[in-house]
Amino acid sequence: MEFGHYTPYIAGAFGFTALVLAALILHGWRDGRAQKRALAELQGDQR
């Protein structure tokens, strides 16, 4: 597959997209862990 002189733009777009997706996945994973800790703390306070 030949992209010609558009290769830097295409590679940059794919790279930027990969970084954004990785950041979203990492944020979701970290937020999920924080929510589980908060829920466990709230459940522990009620007992």
TrEMBL record:
It comes from the Bacteria. It holds the Pfam family CcmD. It is found in: Cell inner membrane. Keywords: Cell inner membrane, Cell membrane, Cytochrome c-type biogenesis, Membrane, Transmembrane, Transmembrane helix, Transport. It comes from Methylorubrum salsuginis. Its main location: membrane. It is a single-pass membrane protein. Belongs to the CcmD/CycX/HelD family. This is Heme exporter protein D. Required for the export of heme to the periplasm for the biogenesis of c-type cytochromes. GO terms for biological process: cytochrome complex assembly; heme transport. InterPro entries: Haem_export_protD_CcmD (IPR007078). Coiled coil: none annotated. The chain crosses the membrane at residues 6-29. GO terms for cellular component: plasma membrane.
